[in-house]
Structure formats: C-alpha cells, structure tokens
Write a structure and sequence with these properties.
six-stranded mixed sheet, single chain, 12 strands, 4 helices, rod-shaped
Amino acid sequence: MRASGRSRPTTSPLLAGVYLVVVAAGITISLLMAARLLDILGLREAPPPVERQAAPDGQGTAPAVPDPAPAAAPPALWTEAPVRVDPAGQDYPRREPAPSEPPFPDILAIPRSVDILDNVRFAFAGTTYRIAGITPIDGNEICEAPSGRRWACGIRGRVFLRKVLAGDTFRCRFYPAGSDGERPLDCQVTATTTIAGRILAAGWGAPDADAAPELRDIHAAAVAARLGLWSAD
C-alpha cells in the first residue's frame, strides 16, 4: 500500500557548500568596498611607512631598526653664565668653617717677683707691660682728699695691681706696641671680668681716650661710690 501525501525535498551537501561559499564571498566583497570607500573619503588613517634598508647579505631589503636614544649628558659643574644654585640640592662635601679666635688667645704667667711700676704698668723678664684702656698715674703720686688730707694714692694703686697680678696666670690679648716699647694688653680674670675692669671698679684709675664703653660705665660707678682715688677720706 502506497503512503499518501507529498514527499519533503532534500538538499544535497554539494549545494549547501556552494551556498556558504557564495555568502562568504559576498561578505568579503562588502568589507573591501567599505574599506575602499573610507580610503576615498579620507576617514581611515594610513599606517606609517616602513623604512627598508639593504640586508647584510645584499639580497633584498630588511626593515630599518631605529637607533637607540642617546643617554642624557650629566649636568655640567661649571658654566659661563650665572646660575642660581639651591644649597638644599647640593650634596658636595663642604669645608668646615674656621673656628673663631677666642677673645683672649695668649697665656701670660706673671711671677711673684713682678716689678709693679704704677697702677697699670708692670715689668718682668726685660719686658714692660701696660694694661690698655686706663690712664696711668705716677707710682709716687700724692692725692688730696676733700677734707684736705694728703695720702699716697700712687702707692695704693701699685699695691692693688700687685694683688691682682703677682704669681697668677692669665689669658690675655696683646695690642700693637707703641713707640715707648711697652706692650699694651688686657687679660681675663673671670668669664666676665678683665684686669682693666677690676682696676676701674676699685677706683684705682680712669679710662683713657681709647677705652671701651663698658670700661667707662665701670669707672662712672666707682666715682659715684667714691672708691679708690675718689674716696672721701
């Protein structure tokens, strides 16, 4: 008995393959046409040209290899034009600053047998020294008090200077010698006191024209207190 109805058509594998080839060709042609259209309109960026150079064996060409960038040169240490330098950015070794000279750089040892000439001058070992900044008074000077009493102020000044100097060692500063050959100096007694300051504070001298302002202040205080040469009696 025959089956009724219409039979289904069948597609051979050959026809299916041809169909796929036609579709792929159509897509490829469409892409090529689109790329050509972009080139005509200038919408597609052209790839950079490749420079070619002769191959080492002389046959054909090979892509050129760009030279490596040169290394940056180190900064020059010396320039001909003025340059502002930031000290914080300099790591070069620096020389240590020279130490400042102390105010009393010399040592003077005074023997007990020192010869005291007056209120500011003394001598030993063939050299005469003078305390700078004070006017000397004669070692044999006679002074008269306001009461009329006369007294040996020159000797008293010499005695005071001996008490300060004899048998002691001081840190001193020497000044240029004068035409008389004496060596002017001043010496440190304590951290804040000098021999000149001690003489003036006790009233056994007056500041000269070259005296420092602080010596003048010390002298004014001694006069006000009527000490030494300015004593009332």
